[in-house]
């Protein structure tokens, strides 16, 4: 049973955490993809930017959260979302819009977004330095240990406070996005534009508004993902290229331009990562006695070491591109 | 690459089709300015330093030529130049470093060979399992068998490999090299990079152009992670040095002369590549490639095999990157997997190409040398600006500067490179020396 608890701690919880973060990131990427038809490489740095804004605000007002009983970083999150959304809209106005007006190929937009990613990276590292920092400035990270009511179970299930917030906020964000896309006028217009931009424009939808709304949503979601990731571990300014691959893999697995697919893809990639680095010999150890004598179990039976984690999303990406390039849920744009 | 609308001359006759040779004023001015900049660097920084800069610029020019083939000729965006450069550097290291007797003198090589053979055998078994449906096994069952076999065999082989590699690490340090001349490593590096490029290109080139960028970005990080963590093969973060040069080293000739000899080797390589590319560009093959870039549908309608041509171009570019990476690695005389950074080895090359002129080989070489000079000179410049800011800040406002100022100042260069990319794309999408497109009339 201890092994099972170990499994829950290291795979179920860890996988849900990474999965949620990838899912929120991938929703943003896939929305941008479906409206503007290019892979937005600056997304990971928008996440970092959002987390950095939270860090700045938290350092400025460290005691704001204590009065309500939540971490200060969470209180600052809506403000950071606004700031990141403003950044996203501004970046679009300054850099992407002229390129779009020029009628360039999508791949040129991709290169433009790489330029933006470098600029953001440079600015963030210039101000934040290159080392990791904790978002818990004044408050303490709560850790809950839930002991299981079974005989012989010594190890408790460990879950931290930010992880619980992460699950709650992910759920809220997904439900809100669902309601927005299906119930509101703007959301419906967005879906129409992702289906057929010309037709949407001809039927009186203001495409400029839709583009701006897309950036606001993508920026807000990026701020959420970045902040929750930094709350769970620490704020690191140089994560961007390691986050990009899993997020893109998640978006492509789910079918590009498909927000619900992106959620599923995020969890697929997140769980695949944790399953691949999990040491399976821990689970097999209780059955050691029933193995034949010639079979000696190696102590490390993980698929890849943690240092090769990035191989997993790449492998998933390659597999999906080979077997089903439209994604699991049939993306619209390919 | 926007298609400019060309106004068609109504008095067009076929005789007009031969392009008149215009005086290459732009080229002369730009290269004159470049020469002046190089001479200025020689005057200020001294001959040894400047020659080193030129050799590195020449190696970067090979990388830039590789990227200009992919991006300029064919419109493929490779966001993982760093990975191919690192592969080239790794091969240069592996082939040229002296033989490590602590490894080859023991039974470890045969152990390693045995595990690798197991790996090959396991792959064959899995491949055979995927063909089971030809023997009448239902397809679903075949897939299940193949996947289970692959997982189990992979786990077995990988745990055997872990044992052997940790033994190598503890007993011999690392595998060591083959003690061959460095140019063998360069060629193998090019071939290896081409092989990886084939793998990626084969998967991605038929799909949206963005997917290639995503996949190359990923493979570059994977190659770096592999080289960084495989201590038994590369010594990882402990780095390998010195790497022997194919030319007489600084101990025999002195720094300036030895670097000048190395520079002439790279110059010859560039000249050969340039000549071959020039021929290929003006050959029917080059026309076909450009036709595919400019209008895919019409060239497909003409019966051209688009995906095959694309794959050729992509692999060719990767080979050049591997070769350039090998030459760069040997010149630095140090193999440090952590020294390969996306900024220095991917985006710098990208700036060289889009600033110099994608699709124009001369422009690419100009861009490579010019951007590299600016890049090298920007490091002391950034620090100087930063120190001035600190001086002013401390003196006037009593601001206390953070301690890791040097590493932060260098981040300003990241910003500048990014700004440069976006500005060039917006205001000079064809670069300083645009590709010369022959137009009729």
TrEMBL record, chain A:
The chain crosses the membrane at residues 12-35, 47-68, 74-95, 107-128, 164-181, 210-233, 239-256, 263-282, 302-323. The keyword Iron does not apply. It is a multi-pass membrane protein. Keywords: Amino-acid transport, Cell inner membrane, Cell membrane, Membrane, Transmembrane, Transmembrane helix, Transport. It is found in: Cell inner membrane. Belongs to the binding-protein-dependent transport system permease family. LivHM subfamily. PANTHER family: BRANCHED-CHAIN AMINO ACID TRANSPORT SYSTEM PERMEASE PROTEIN LIVH, HIGH-AFFINITY BRANCHED-CHAIN AMINO ACID TRANSPORT SYSTEM PERMEASE PROTEIN LIVH. This is Branched-chain amino acid ABC transporter permease. The lineage of its organism: Bacteria, Pseudomonadati, Pseudomonadota, Gammaproteobacteria, Oceanospirillales.
TrEMBL record, chain B:
It is found in: Cell inner membrane. The keyword Cell membrane applies. It comes from the Bacteria. The chain crosses the membrane at residues 28-48, 81-100, 112-129, 141-160, 180-199, 260-281, 313-335, 347-374, 381-399, 411-428. Keywords: Cell membrane, Membrane, Transmembrane, Transmembrane helix. This is Branched-chain amino acid ABC transporter permease. The lineage of its organism: Bacteria, Pseudomonadati, Pseudomonadota, Gammaproteobacteria, Oceanospirillales. Pfam families: BPD_transp_2 (PF02653). It is a multi-pass membrane protein. The keyword Membrane applies.
């Amino acid at each position: 049973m201890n092994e099972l608890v170990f499994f829950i701690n290291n795979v179920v919880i860890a996988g849900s955490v990474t999965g949620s973060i990838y899912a929120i990131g991938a929703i943003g990427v896939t929305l941008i993809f479906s409206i503007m038809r290019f892979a937005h490489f600056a997304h990971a740095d928008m996440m970092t930017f959002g987390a950095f804004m939270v860090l700045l605000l938290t350092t400025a007002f460290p005691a704001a959260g204590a009065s309500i009983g939540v971490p200060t970083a969470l209180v600052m999150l809506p403000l950071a979302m606004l700031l990141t959304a403003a950044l996203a809209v501004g970046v679009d106005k300054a850099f992407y819009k002229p390129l779009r007006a020029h009628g360039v190929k999508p791949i040129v937009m991709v290169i433009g977004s790489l330029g933006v990613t470098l600029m953001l990276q440079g600015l963030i590292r210039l101000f934040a330095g290159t080392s990791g920092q904790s978002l818990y400035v004044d408050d303490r990270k709560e850790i809950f240990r839930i002991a299981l009511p079974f005989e012989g179970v010594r190890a408790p299930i460990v879950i931290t406070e930010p992880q619980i917030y992460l699950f709650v906020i992910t759920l809220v964000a997904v439900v809100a996005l669902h309601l927005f896309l299906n119930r509101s006028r703007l959301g419906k217009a967005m879906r129409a534009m992702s289906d057929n931009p010309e037709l949407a424009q001809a039927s009186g939808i203001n495409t400029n508004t839709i583009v701006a709304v897309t950036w606001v949503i993508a920026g807000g979601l990026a701020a959420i993902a970045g902040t929750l990731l930094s709350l769970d571990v620490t704020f690191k300014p140089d994560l961007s290229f390691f986050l990009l691959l899993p997020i893109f893999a998640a978006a492509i697995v789910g079918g590009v331009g498909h927000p619900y697919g992106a959620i599923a893809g995020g969890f697929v990639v997140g769980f695949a990562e944790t399953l691949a680095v999990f040491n399976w010999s821990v689970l097999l150890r209780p059955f050691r006695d029933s193995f034949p004598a010639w079979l000696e179990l190696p102590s490390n039976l993980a698929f890849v070491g943690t240092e090769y984690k990035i191989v997993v999303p790449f492998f998933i990406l390659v597999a999906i591109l080979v077997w089903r390039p439209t994604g699991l849920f049939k993306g619209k744009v390919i | 690459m926007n298609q400019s609308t060309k106004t068609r001359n109504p008095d067009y006759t076929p005789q007009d089709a031969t392009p008149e040779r215009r005086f290459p004023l732009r080229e002369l001015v730009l290269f004159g300015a470049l020469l002046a900049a190089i001479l200025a660097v020689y005057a200020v920084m001294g001959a040894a330093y400047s020659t080193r800069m030129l050799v590195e610029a020449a190696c970067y020019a090979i990388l830039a030529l590789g990227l200009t083939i992919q991006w300029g000729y064919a419109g493929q965006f490779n966001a993982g130049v760093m990975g191919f450069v690192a592969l080239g550097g790794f091969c240069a290291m592996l082939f040229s470093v002296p033989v490590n007797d602590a490894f080859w003198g023991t039974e470890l090589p045969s152990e390693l060979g045995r595990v690798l053979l197991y790996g090959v055998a396991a792959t064959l078994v899995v491949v055979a399992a995927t063909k089971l449906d030809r023997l009448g096994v239902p397809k679903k069952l075949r897939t299940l068998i193949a996947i289970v076999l692959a997982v189990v065999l992979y786990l077995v082989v990988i745990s055997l490999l872990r044992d052997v590699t940790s033994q190598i690490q503890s007993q011999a340090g690392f595998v060591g090299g083959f003690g061959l001349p460095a140019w063998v490593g360069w060629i193998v590096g090019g071939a290896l990079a081409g092989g990886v490029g084939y793998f990626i290109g084969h998967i991605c080139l038929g799909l949206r152009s963005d997917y290639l960028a995503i996949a190359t970005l990923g493979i570059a990080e994977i190659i770096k992670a592999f080289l960084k963590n495989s201590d038994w093969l590369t010594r990882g973060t402990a780095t390998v040095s010195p790497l022997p040069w194919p030319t007489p080293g600084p101990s025999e000739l002195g720094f300036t002369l030895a670097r000048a000899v190395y520079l002439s080797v790279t110059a010859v390589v560039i000249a050969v590549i340039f000549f071959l590319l020039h021929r290929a560009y003006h050959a029917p093959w080059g026309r076909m490639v450009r036709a595919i870039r400019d209008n895919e549908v019409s060239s497909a309608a003409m019966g051209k095999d688009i995906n095959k041509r694309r794959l050729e171009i992509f692999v060719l570019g990767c080979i050049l990157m591997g070769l350039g990476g090998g030459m760069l690695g040997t010149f630095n005389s140090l193999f440090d997997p952590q020294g390969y950074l996306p900024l220095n080895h991917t985006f710098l090359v990208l700036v060289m190409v889009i600033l110099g002129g994608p699709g124009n080989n001369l422009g690419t070489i100009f861009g490579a040398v010019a951007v590299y000079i600016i890049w090298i000179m920007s490091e002391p410049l950034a620090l100087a600006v930063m120190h001035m800011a600190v001086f002013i800040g401390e003196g006037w406002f009593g601001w206390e500067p953070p301690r890791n100022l040097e590493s932060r100042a260098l981040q300003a260069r990241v910003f500048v490179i990014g700004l440069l990319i976006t500005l060039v794309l917006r205001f000079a999408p064809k670069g300083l020396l645009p590709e010369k497109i022959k137009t009729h009339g």
